[in-house]
TrEMBL record:
Database matches in PANTHER family: CATABOLIC 3-DEHYDROQUINASE
Family as reported in the entry's similarity comment: Belongs to the type-II 3-dehydroquinase family.
This protein's name: 3-dehydroquinate dehydratase
Coiled coil ranges: none
Record: active site: Y23, H98
Gene: aroQ
Sorted UniProt keywords: Amino-acid biosynthesis, Aromatic amino acid biosynthesis, Lyase
Pathway this chain belongs to: Metabolic intermediate biosynthesis; chorismate biosynthesis; chorismate from D-erythrose 4-phosphate and phosphoenolpyruvate: step 3/7
Task of the protein: Catalyzes a trans-dehydration via an enolate intermediate.
Lineage per the UniProt record: Bacteria, Pseudomonadati, Bacteroidota, Flavobacteriia, Flavobacteriales
Source organism superkingdom: Bacteria
Reactions the enzyme catalyzes: 3-dehydroquinate = 3-dehydroshikimate + H2O
Alphabetized GO MF terms: 3-dehydroquinate dehydratase activity
Amino acid sequence: MKKLIIINGPNLNLLGKREPEIYGSQTFEDYFENLESKYNDISLEYYQSNIEGELIDKLQEVGFSYDGIILNAAAYTHTSVGIGDAIKGIETPVVEVHISNTFSREEFRHQSYISPNAKGVILGFGLKSYDLAIESFN
């Protein structure tokens, strides 16, 4: 059984409340339950932190033993050399995910420190972006 983890960065704990016109009205916890049901042949885990160092620690913890990492580093995507370096230093492939199309938003969101080290990038499909990322590991 494949072992995948979804790692979400800052403010994604507010999904369902934060800017529903961009991010929708469903909480990630509810959505994750749907993912677990839909992909019951995959061992799926979920982790979220608003703290950059905790995200790096989690990447290093799972980065040599899991089959895949789905990472939405949120705002850290555009600022964190450290997260980019952590991905470069692990063996587990990482798919970068964004709920919104970051290229249709503010200019600073067009830069990613994750993309150069990722297996692939999926953005702009709402929460469905996570489904697409999971499918990429099949």
